[in-house]
Every structure is written in structure tokens, then in C-alpha cells.
């Protein structure tokens, strides 16, 4: 099925997953975001990997109770990838046999226009989640300036000057996510675009939220989930790693332990090895053996304190 040339399978109706955890921290972020949206502003969730940007964006989208389209930022994006373009041709053939002895055939070959996700969302009042939007080149995102400010989508850049503008539906909502600008593969966003959205900076979750998430995702006991979180948070606070461990690392550890049925105990060699492998790979990207040995040494010291 198609909607203005866009596959309907691209349109989703977000639902809250059964293991999605809502704590005071998450509720506070979501309530503020919904207030900004109600006031007519786009929101921007910014934070390093593992801070839950995309999950929270989709949760906010589910609260809006409208169809959602998702775009993932890409360095190769052009403006046409956001608004649409001319793809293929439509052929119309007319056969005139009014006079029996004369057959008249007319054919028209017309370029076929296909709306992309931004255009579809703007026309129909859908929610647009633009994940990692700063991975797209700034010039591709310029089309968003008039959408967010004047509530007009300029399609003349792709269709031709005669086409003009599309008025943005009153229910259209935009939710952006991004990593900090010091991340690899991330472009600096234009000041003009940032000025048209409200940025909520996300950090690592508070301890209670991390425990609740790991418990929900892995089905470990609260006590065991807390032991995993304690190791994560202490390793993070030491600041000796290239990157601080995130909740993702804790979920990997906890889920693996649950599969293996291994106890969260410092005397269990399997638990120790899983923590070393997961946390060392998450906190050091360079693959430097000296850095990995340092991380493993720190993890072993933390084991004697908590596990």
C-alpha cells in the first residue's frame, strides 16, 4: 500500500514496550518534552551513546498518539532524501479509433514524484523522529528551517520553482536526537536550526533508573541488578577509561548472566570474565592492549568492593 508514494510500512504507531521503565528521571524528561511540544516547539534530545535518546524519543512519540515516521541521519543524505524526488515515469496511452479506418495513438510520458518522509509527515500531521540528525550534512537539513519556523515546507528545491510551498499540518511534530559534536561522524548543527528547537541534554541515568532498567531487561533480581550497576557507576566515576561505561554494557552483562544462569558473585569466574569482556570493549574503542589491561585491572579492584 502507498501513501503519497510512501510505503505505508514506513509509518508506525509507537507502542510502549513491556520492559520500558518509567522512573522519576524519565517522567521528568518526558513531561518537559511534551510541554514544549504542546507549546509548538520541536524538541532535540542530545546525549552520548547509551543515554536512551532514541528510546525516550519513541516513548514521547507514543504519548502523542499519532502515526510516526523515523529518519536516521546519514552523511549521504541530500535534501531530496528528506522531501522526495522524481523517481521513474508514468506512461499514459490513448487510442482513438473513432474513424474505423484511422487509428490515432497518443502517449504521454510524465515523471513520477514520490514524497519522502518529511513531506508525508508535514502534509498529514504525523510525528517525525529524526534520529542522529547531525550525521547528515548541514546543507541537507536546511530544508527544516522554514518547516520549524514558518511552518512551510519549500518543495521548489526539488520539484521546480513553480511548485512553491506546502503548508505544514498543525499536528506535525518533530523530535530530533543527536550525539555530542565531538563524536566521530557528527557534523556541527547550524545555529539557525538549533534556535528553532528546544534541546534537552541527557546524561547517564540516576542509580535507581539504571537498576530498574537492568532488572526489567534481564529479569535478574534487584540485588543482582544493583551489584552490576555499582560496578558500572564506580568504573564511570573513576574516569580512568577512554569512555565511561553506559547502561548498554550493564544490560549486556545482566542478560548474558541470566542466559547462563551464572551467579552475580565475585568468586564466580564466568561473571568476572563477562564483565571484563563487555566493559573493556565498551570503554576502549582503540583496541589498545595496554588500555584494555588497565580497564581489566580496575574492574578486578571493583569486584572486591561490590560483587
Task: Compose a concise summary of this entry.
It catalyses: ATP + H2O = ADP + phosphate + H(+). This protein is an alpha/beta fold and 307 residues long.
Could you characterize the architecture of this molecule?
- The protein has 307 residues and is of the alpha/beta class.
- The chain contains 13 helices and 12 strands.
- It has helices at 24-38, 53-64, 79-83, 117-124, 138-141, 144-149, 156-159, 191-194, 207-218, 222-238, 247-260, 269-283, 289-305; strands at 2-3, 6-7, 11-12, 42-46, 68-72, 84-96, 104-115, 127-131, 152-154, 165-167, 173-178, 197-201.
Beta strand count: 12
**What percentage of residues falls in helices of 4 or more residues?**
40-55%
Please write the string of helix (H) and strand (E) elements.
Answer: EEEHEHEHEEHEHHEHEEHEHHHHH
The fold-level CATH name of the largest domain is: Rossmann fold
**Large-scale geometry:** elongated
The CATH top-level class label of the largest domain: Alpha Beta
* Level-2 CATH architecture of the largest domain: 3-Layer(aba) Sandwich
Low-confidence runs (pLDDT<50, min 5 residues)?
A: 1-6
Global Rg: 25 Å
Helix/strand structural class: alpha/beta
Q: Numbering strands along the chain, what is their spatial order in the largest sheet?
A: 3-5-8-11-4-12
Q: Report the span from N to C terminus.
A: 54 Å
Largest sheet: 6 strands, mixed
Mean pLDDT across residues: 83
**In percent terms, what proportion of residues is strand?**
15-25%
So how many helices?
13
CATH superfamily of the largest domain: P-loop containing nucleotide triphosphate hydrolases
Count of structural domains: 2
Amino acid at each position: 500500500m502507498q501513501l503519497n508514494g510512501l510505503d505505508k510500512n514506513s509509518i508506525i504507531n509507537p507502542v510502549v514496550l513491556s520492559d520500558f521503565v518509567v522512573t522519576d528521571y524519565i517522567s521528568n524528561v518526558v513531561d518537559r518534552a511534551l510541554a514544549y511540544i504542546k507549546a509548538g516547539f520541536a524538541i532535540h534530545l542530545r546525549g552520548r551513546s547509551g543515554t536512551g535518546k532514541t528510546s525516550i524519543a519513541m516513548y514521547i512519540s507514543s504519548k502523542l498518539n499519532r502515526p510516526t515516521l523515523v529518519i536516521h541521519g546519514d552523511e549521504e543524505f541530500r535534501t531530496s532524501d528528506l522531501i522526495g524526488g522524481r523517481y521513474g515515469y508514468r506512461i499514459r496511452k490513448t487510442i482513438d479509433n473513432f474513424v474505423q479506418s484511422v487509428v490515432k495513438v497518443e502517449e504521454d510520458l510524465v515523471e513520477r514524484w514520490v514524497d519522502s518522509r518529511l513531506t508525508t509527515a508535514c502534509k498529514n500531521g504525523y510525528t517525525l523522529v529524526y534520529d542522529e540528525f547531525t550525521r547528515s550534512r548541514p546543507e541537507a537539513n536546511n530544508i527544516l528551517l522554514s518547516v520549524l519556523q514558518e511552518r512551510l515546507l519549500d518543495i521548489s528545491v526539488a520539484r521546480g520553482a513553480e511548485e512553491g510551498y506546502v503548508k505544514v499540518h498543525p499536528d506535525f511534530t518533530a523530535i530530533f536526537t543527536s550525539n555530542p559534536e565531538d563524536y566521530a561522524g557528527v557534523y556541527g548543527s547550524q545555529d539557525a536550526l538549533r534556535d528553532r528547537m528546544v534541546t534537552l541534554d541527557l546524561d547517564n541515568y540516576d542509580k535507581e533508573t539504571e537498576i530498574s532498567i537492568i532488572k526489567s531487561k534481564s529479569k535478574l533480581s534487584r540485588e543482582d541488578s544493583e551489584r552490576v550497576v555499582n560496578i558500572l557507576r564506580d568504573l564511570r566515576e573513576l574516569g580512568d577509561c577512554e569512555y565511561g561505561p553506559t547502561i548498554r554494557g550493564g544490560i549486556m552483562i545482566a542478560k548474558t548472566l541470566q542466559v547462563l544462569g551464572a551467579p552475580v558473585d565475585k568468586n564466580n569466574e564466568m561473571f568476572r570474565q563477562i564483565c571484563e569482556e563487555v566493559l573493556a570493549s565498551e570503554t576502549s574503542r582503540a583496541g589498545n592492549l595496554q588500555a584494555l589491561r588497565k580497564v581489566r585491572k580496575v574492574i578486578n579492584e571493583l569486584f572486591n568492593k561490590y560483587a
